[in-house]
Specification:
Elements lengths: L3 E5 L23 H11 L4 E6 L4 H12 L4 E6 L21 H6 L9 E5 L2 E2 L2 H13 L7 E8 L10 E8 L5 E13 L2 E6 L2 E4 L5 E9 L3 H16 L9 H10 L4 E6 L5 E2 L6 H13 L9
Parallel strand pairs: 1-2, 1-4, 2-3, 6-12
Antiparallel strand pairs: 4-11, 5-13, 6-11, 7-8, 7-11, 8-9, 9-10
Length: about 300
């Protein structure tokens, strides 16, 4: 079965302060994306599609895509502010695209097979790619709507250098996803995990699953995603910071009976570079994984 990896790589990372997708964290100058691509190839993915911006096209081609093409088929598409469904007129004051859901929609013309969505700046670990690929291959995809996600324990996804946003997952006893609740400003406080909720502090169990934007979809998601984003933009055109997130379409598909989403546990610890201060931690963890033999000194 053909399986595509869709990498969301258009963001600059405002809190981080730079183009972290191209930051070197591995022993031979590897980026975090390099490790995701390596793990995807190992898990049997046949194609990788990148969502990028036009202004980073040259850097991405020279620093990443050129070496990947020796190992796997690579395509890329642009996430552009005015590439939206319908005939809406985008306010000239609007400067950023419409969120991760909009980014996924950009790939609708180049993906016709089951696909997995990830962030470019997250280190997910081998287990996530393996368990999701195995689940997708086990399904009868002519039935459509058999989605999945890699779930991580909240306590294993926090930064010591500031708060983060996470999608808190509620699942059934059979690990079918019921809903995802987006929480912002989550962090440690006096040995407890606390989220800010409308000016109040909400204590969250560190053992709950969270979404780290590692989703498995079938192509039937695209027509619904297109319709929902068109509605969203119509309703939020005057809100210059409004964004349509991947969990929005997931929730829509579940609530309308169009899809089921299996939560699959990723046993590796997630880590990423939300803040500049996170980079030394990531470098050290990758060094440990390399020394233990999980990755070679040079990936490509």
């Amino acid at each position: 079965m053909d399986l595509t990896l869709l990498v969301l790589a258009a963001g600059m990372g405002s809190r981080y302060g730079g183009l972290k997708q191209l930051d070197k964290v591995g022993p031979s100058g590897e980026t975090i994306i390099d490790y995701s691509v390596y793990d995807a190839i190992e898990a049997g993915f046949s194609k990788i599609v990148f969502i990028i911006r036009k202004d980073i096209e040259k850097d991405m081609n020279e620093l990443l895509f050129k070496k990947y093409r020796k190992k796997i088929k690579i395509e890329y598409v642009f996430q552009e502010l005015d590439n939206v469904p319908g005939n809406v007129v985008i306010p000239k004051e609007r400067v950023k695209p419409w969120g991760t859901g909009h980014a996924v929609l950009m790939a609708k013309d180049v993906i016709n097979e089951p696909f997995v969505v990830i962030n470019a700046d997250d280190f997910y670990g081998k287990s996530a790619f393996k368990v999701v690929a195995e689940y997708i291959r086990s399904q009868q995809y002519e039935l459509k709507g058999k989605y999945c996600m890699a779930g991580y324990l909240l306590k294993n996804t926090l930064s010591e250098n500031g708060t983060v946003s996470r999608g808190i997952c509620k699942a059934s006893n059979n690990n079918d996803l019921i809903e995802v609740i987006e929480r912002t400003k989550i962090g440690w406080k006096e040995n407890k995990i606390v989220a800010e909720d409308e000016g109040k502090e909400l204590i969250i169990d560190g053992g709950v699953y969270v979404s780290m934007n590692f989703w498995g979809f079938t192509p039937d998601v695209f027509p619904e995603l297109e319709k929902e984003i068109e509605k969203f933009i119509d309703n939020n055109i005057s809100n210059l910071k409004s964004e349509y997130y991947i969990p929005n379409i997931v929730t829509h598909q579940i609530n309308n009976g169009n899809a089921s989403v299996k939560v699959l546990e990723a046993t590796d610890q997630w880590f990423g570079v939300t803040y500049k201060e996170d980079k030394p931690v990531v470098v050290e963890k990758i060094k440990q994984l390399t020394n233990s033999g999980k990755y070679p000194e040079k990936l490509f």
